[in-house]
Amino acid sequence: MSPFLEALARHAFLQHALAAGVLASIACGIVGSYVVVKRIGYLAGGVAHTALGGMGIAYFLGKSPLGGALVAALLAAAVIGWVSLRFRQHEDTIIGALWAVGMAIGILFISRTPGYNVDLMSYLFGNILMVPREDLLLMGGLDGVIIALVWLFRKQFLAVCFDEEFARLRGVPVEVFYLGLLLMVALTVVILIQVVGLILVLALLTLPAAIAGQYVRSLAAMMFMATLLGVLFTGAGLALSYEPDMPAGATIILLAGVAYLLSALGRGVWLRLLRHRRKAVSQAKP
Amino acid sequence: MKPIIELMDVSFAYDIGPPALEHVSLAVEEGEFLGLVGPNGGGKSTLLKLVLGLLKSGSGEVRVAGRSPQAARSMIGYVPQYARFARDFPISVEETVLLGRLGTTRLLGGYGVADREMARRMMAETEVLDLLQRPLGTLSGGQLQRVLVARALACDPHILILDEPTANIDLRAETEIFDLFKALNQRMTIVVVSHDIAFISRYVTRVACLNRTLLCHQPVPVGSEVIQRLYGMPVQRIPHGMTCEMGEKP
After folding, report:
1. A–B: how many Cβ contacts below 8 A?
2. What are phi and psi of B229, to 5 degrees?
3. Distance from CA of B226 to the nearest CA of A (A)
């Protein structure tokens, strides 16, 4: 671990990587909590993977791939949200189709781009060690947008996630906030692309929040704990992968996955023990 | 005086399936405590959804306080039949009740002092104030139902609409919660859907039987002999295909 710390002090790219991890964790913690409690992981996956289409087109045109991803992700969120509201019956089929078509478009455009296509892998699996300063600023800005939206409309977002019908009866424009939620997912996806890549976005979006959800009693606490877990996973993943030169994105996700598994198992055992003890106590009583 | 809820020759059909409601006309006066009974699939929930403005009637007209249901939503407190949310949702009792303030409270940011006061008052009235900080998932069925009633009351409604509010709780809790409704009826109109006509007739001022069409509405007291004539036996669950042969018309 200490060679990592030494390198961290010396190299700006590692400091950037760590900062990217923290910025990504903030978005993940907040938006991921909504995704988990609202159970829209599949929709979030659709938004993430469709974004590759925009990245490919931007790459082909010589524009910023991250900018392309931002446009495509927002567009995908709007379309997927509309599909989900309008055709709930066929939601999974349509989103599955969009998911695949978006990726296919991206791969076609990237293959048509002259030059060596080394970037494709880094879009798909992230490249946290190569985060430029401008991207950090973009990530920070998007974090700011998400925090502001959630701070201002936290009542409405909670109502829509908790009980759509009741929210509608209280005059909350449910469709607007549902779409807003998906647009925030799109922003988060763009923030995460640099860190873990398109393919692994979904894991970092849901795993920290899912772990937090096992312990907390409020959505705000869930967001806070999920953010801390995200920082822990990205930081530790970075450190672990640095010396053996493993892919950082994959290491981060594996850490998160193992932590989720251990947490779920541990909690299951703990609850069972508790039930046994309670039973024993009640039987001991005359 | 104009009725507070008025359905005029209302029919409704879902996209698929037979009509759910046909030519229903019903007027609920202010201050009434109306029990809506009928078999499963008889259109009770559909009727409530029309009154709440969640569905639009195919033909006929629904008015609430002389306005369209959507326009009158802020006057109505609603307690759904099923808890429509995941039981493990990370939310406390107080936060749940505060959601009832949406539409009344400010648009941006958190809740105001007045919102919290109102929520506490309603929790006190429904006797869940001591559960304030409890996660919703740890409540018993009866406690949860009271919290949902508090949430419905938090907007200070003129009308309280409840869809099978006691479907999942035991008889003692059911009696307690209907005593609460009786007290609430002093200041608001109540419409309650139930399967159990014998039970609710101790509380409601009028019973309406619905099986796609409005079969009857009968002021209470509905004596047990009337119920027996209505259904052929003392009923807890109403059999399908019931007919509502009235011995004595109102």
Report:
1. 76
2. -70, -35
3. 37
Q: CA distances (Å), A128 to each of A247, A251, A267, B6, in order?
A: 9, 11, 32, 63
How far apart CA A129 and CA A151 sit, in angstroms, is 31
- The answer to whether the pTM exceeds 0.90 is no
| Residue among B52, B96, B108 minimizing CB distance to A169 | B52
Higher pLDDT, residue A4 or B197: A4
> Which residues, in sequence order, are CB contacts of B246 under 8 Å at separation 6+?
B216, B218, B229, B230
Collect all residues with Cβ–Cβ distance below 8 Å to B202 and sequence separation of at least 6. Answer: B178
CA separation, residue A94 to residues A83, A218, A233, B120, B150 (Å): 7, 33, 33, 45, 40
Angle A174-A178-A184 from CA coordinates, rounded to 5°: 145
Look at residues A1, A284, A2, A23 and name the one whose alpha carbon lies nearest to residue A128: A23
Query: How far apart are alpha carbons B88 and A217 in whole angstroms?
Result: 9
Give the helix/strand (H/E) hosting B215. strand B213-219
Cα–Cα distance, A27 to A205 (Å, whole number)? 8
List the B19-28 sheet strands across, edge first: B19-28, B5-13, B59-64
Count the residues in chain B.
250
Which residues in chain B are contacts of A159 at CB distance < 8 A? Answer: 99, 102
Which residues of A have a CB under 8 Å from any CB of B? 37, 39, 151-156, 158-159, 161-172, 213, 216-219, 221-222
Q: Could you tell me the pLDDT band of residue A77, with boundaries at 50, 70 and 90?
A: very high
Q: Which two tokens stand for residue A45?
A: 């996956």
**Chain B residue with Cα closest to A219:** B90
Q: In this structure, which amino acid lies at residue B143?
A: Q
Is B54 in Cβ contact with A170 (below 8 Å)?
no
The ipTM (two decimal places) reads 0.85
Q: Which residues contact A186 (CB under 8 A, 6 or more apart)?
A: A47, A51, A70, A73, A74, A76, A77
- Tens of pLDDT along A103-123? 999 989 988 888 766 667 778
